[in-house]
Amino acid sequence: MTSKTSGLEPVKCWRLDCGERTAAFASFSNGIPALIAFGPRLPRQENLESVARATVPNVSAGQLDPLVPLTLCPTSTDGWQGHPGVVFRAEGGNPLLPDWQIADVNENGPHAIQWIMEGSGVDVAITLTIRVELCNTGVLSVQIDCQGSDEADLQWLAPAVPVPDHMPRIVDHGGRWTGEFQRQEHRFTLGQYVRESFEGRTGHAHFPGMTFAADACDENSGACMGVSLAWSGGHKIVAEELPDGRRQVQCGYDAATTGYKREMLVAVSEDGFNGLLQQWQQHVRTHIVRHAARPVHYNCWEAVYFRHDVEELKEIATIAADLGAERFVLDDGWFKNRNDDTTSLGDWTVDQAKYPDGLGPLVDHITGLGMRFGIWFEPEMVNKNSDLYRAHPDWVLGPDHQPEGRNQHVLDLTKPGVTDYLYENIAAILQAYAVDYVKWDHNRVLTGAKPQQTVALYALFERLNKAFPKVDFESCSSGGGRIDYGILNYTTRVWLSDSNDALERLRMQHEAARWLPPEIAGSHVGPRVCHTSGRVLPMEFRAWVAAQRHMGFEMDPRELTQDEAETLKRVTAWWRENRDFLFSARQYLLDSNDEAVFAELHVDEARDRFILFKGQAGTSGPIAARRMRLAGLSPDALYDITLINPEDVTRLLNRYEATGLMKGETIRLSGSALMNGGLRLPNAVPASIFVVEGRKVRS
């Protein structure tokens, strides 16, 4: 519709509807469109022009007249006084200020629309393309790219969306190596809150997502909105409040990378943080990660490190298979002269000293046990002590005198021949052996990083995925250094952290679930003495924490006592029987009202069954455990509730335990009672976990 009224005119509007969601857009005076509404479905008779005009504040002293809208890519040309969405400079550094106008619109059905913008008022050809899609998961995809010219230097490009006025809280995740996904919370203040990674990869401290929430928002109630940048390189997220009170968020990255889209995903919830969690998880399952097998992993790294001996590895594989492992992953140390981390990265041929007959005898033994075979690579890296570096020192990314990280450097994937070399060497191994899984590692930050490095990486993954469609790739980057919705387009699993400490994992897995479905996150039972923390934790706790996600083992199984082995076999057997349920259910993080407790619930689509994990990380304040309020159940249904792991908690047995649940007895409660009154679980000590199952009673 078009209107000729005072102020910003004319106004043209569009809407996308999907399920119970509406995304509405408006262009004022044929300029860059703005997101004017995103949330519960608007009535068909809604006057979108009125909605659009309501997003623009009234004019006051000291401001431009009229105030400009917050568009999907705000520009200073329009008079926008906040962080711009696009910055071009001409030769000499002078800013280019095109007057962006809609040149074409492509309405691709009810769920997608594209605007082609052309910049007038400058002597260079610049086209800005904005595309939005509203997916069947309720997630909005806002994509932006730019075609420039040699005379126009792109400094910054990012899509922007408004943050609702009633969401002053900013929640995001920082962290570090072995301490990923640490929750942080701030509030909007006048000016900018910026999260930025200069690592050339996503970074342990910079998960590229941010959540905005109402003051009253908790896990299961209240309004919130989340955004995430689908990108695996250096990036910046800007959350900003202007003097006129409006708030925006932008997700993008610097430097002249034209022709490659920036994609920001946006989700909104009226049902608390769990509403966002379920949308993100479903979006990953439906639109990002392809379906993959989820066998129980055995990874040999923390058993042997670089000390590879074929007969010893066969022995370990035999024990691992008996424990329930379904895939054996040969980690770092299998290739030419790789006896420590100072040498040989880049020389991707089998070490004849360790494997005189190649990998065949070991692979045959593993597959003969009924297990799949996986292997470790770190393709983007090179040691100076390697045949590759001696042949191609010019392939290193960054300056000659840069510091090393883990005794290694990064290959410049944009240089001719580099990705061809990597593809050919990786493909040779995948063709020679029955490999169905690659652990793809990335153990240092980049010096002199540029976005084109990430684009080249994606192209290499695309080539490998096309040639080897049955091979699953895992994104590992010293653990959680490259976890994002960009890399998940090419991989089916992430290594959440190099820490196998179950206490650390309990917290990390809880927070990472806000963005990742459980089947995506690898979680392994580590050695008795954790190699990163030095802690010794009970096997039952280590095993059940791993069973919350994609389960595996990463220890020398020969160290296990008989009791430990039996516990691990029992938990693994349970996980193999229930993984399909866990990896299709809706997940809820529960408000425990206890900082020492991390609890999560998995409920099937029909609400017939649930599994509750209640992990105790520390000592609780009160003597008695607080009741755990569940979520997502049928309020009128009755559920039979059983403790799945009574064997693991008998040492905690309290003869005064009221419900008998701890003694293996089944209790019956309604969904309403469980969600409102809560479930009384036994008292717990640190490093323990209760696993509870509920099944709907059939009338």
Fold blueprint:
Blueprint: E1 11-18, E2 21-28, E3 34-40, H1 48-54, E4 86-89, E5 95-96, E6 99-107, E7 112-120, E8 127-134, E9 140-147, E10 153-157, E11 160-162, E12 169-176, E13 179-187, E14 191-197, E15 209-213, E16 224-229, E17 235-241, E18 247-254, E19 262-269, H2 272-288, E20 297-299, H3 301-304, H4 310-323, E21 327-330, H5 360-368, E22 372-377, E23 381-382, H6 387-391, E24 409-410, H7 418-432, E25 435-440, H8 451-467, E26 472-475, E27 493-495, H9 502-512, E28 521-525, H10 539-546, E29 550-553, H11 562-582, E30 586-589, E31 597-603, E32 609-616, E33 638-643, H12 646-649, E34 667-670, H13 671-677, E35 688-696
Parallel strand pairs: 20-21, 20-29, 21-22, 22-25, 25-26, 26-27, 27-28, 28-29
Antiparallel strand pairs: 1-2, 2-3, 4-5, 4-10, 6-7, 7-8, 8-9, 9-19, 10-18, 11-18, 12-13, 12-15, 14-17, 15-16, 16-19, 17-18, 23-24, 30-31, 31-32, 32-35, 33-34, 33-35
- Strand elements, count: 35
If you compute it from the alpha carbons, what radius of gyration comes out, rounded to the nearest whole angstrom?
A: 27 Å
Structural class: alpha+beta
Main beta sheet? 9 strands, antiparallel
Spatial gap, N to C terminus: 55 Å
Number of helices: 13
Mean pLDDT figure: 94
Contiguous uncertain segments of 5+ residues: 1-6
Q: What is the molecular shape? A: globular
Strand order of the largest sheet: 6-7-8-9-19-16-15-12-13
Residue share in helix:
10-25%
- Kindly estimate the percentage of residues that lie in beta strands according to DSSP: 25-35%
